[in-house]
Amino acid sequence: MAVRKIGQRWYYDFRIRRSRYRGVIPEARTKAQAETAEVRIRNQVFDRKYNTQADTLTLVEFIENVYLPWARLNKRRPINDELYCKTFKEFFGKKTFAQISPLLIESFKKERRESLTIHGKQRSPASVNRELEVLSRILSMAVDNSIIESNPARKIKKLRLDNMRKRYLTLEEEQRLFAVLTGRRSHLKPVVALAIHTGMRRGELLGLRWQNVDFARGLIYVTNTKTGTTGKCR
Q: Cα 9 to chain center, whole Å?
């Protein structure tokens, strides 16, 4: 608590978003009374500075009047932001900034993840994360404009991305590939065959030594794998 006694009087001294507020607390006789009064004064300042707009200004109004004009002026492809903002308008409707909580944003994230795209496909985690990034940028701008004190979207975890994609060559594709491994490319044929049938990475293939190959048992011992362990291939 930012209170101190000078002479026979207690004074408060605190900051809210880099603005300093100081004054006397004439009714206080003890430190406890001064601290209680300081909390009341701090809340009054905060309510006067922030909550009036937060309670009345809707997210949609801020998007239309502040964010989108800024995006159209400063971004090379504002069309993406306009599409995202259309989604925000549909979900948040007439919600004021005071009503936008981390729990509500979590509901938005869940709904978007479970909904389908216009093509009838499952919406990807990456798409939802991009929407959350733009929403967070809007709320940060509201903080910069002294409408809210903090950005509730900062507490939201992004969806985990699964970028793993398994792709196998078909028999026809293998045949076409081996068909071009002739002449100057013929030295690549055993390397490609080994890669196809073992799934080894380029670094693992190029790092092979004769001592890694067990011809009798038909095994290849792979060292320095991506996981840092030693593996076996047949």
A: 49
